[in-house]
Amino acid sequence: xxxxxxxxxxxxxxxxxxxxxxxxxxxxxxxxxxxxxxxxxxxxxxxxxxxxxxxxxxxxxxxxxxxxxxxxxxxxxxxxxxxxxxxxxxxxxxxxxxxxxxxxxxxxxxxxxxxxxxxxxxxxxxxxxxxxxxxxxxxxxxxxxxxxx
Length: 149
What we know:
Blueprint: H1 9-24, E1 41-49, H2 55-69, E2 76-83, E3 102-108, H3 111-119, H4 121-130, E4 134-142
Antiparallel strand pairs: 1-3, 1-4, 2-3
């Protein structure tokens, strides 16, 4: 299977970072922490499809099968998918050499909610499904600083 898009891995990475920032600023933030109101923990995951899988097939599985499974996982306060459609690079900065097909962002009210999510059998099922279509992943537990809201 081949992707219909001709986007380099570096351009996907740069677009992903920009889209993540836009998604984060889409709703109000706590003035102290910069986190979205009511959420103190955010996990962002950069996802790349399995070798041989098209971007379109990756997105279809992610949106239609995987994402709905998250509804059964406890503790999630907000869950967003950022699907990378295109990206660009800067000529004055060295590019990342990774392919990214999407960004998953999960917000949790507090550590107890994050722990409930992390130890849940439903989360294990979600991760097991992820292994069927995700080829590479890196997760970040992050603190947001909203600059423009």
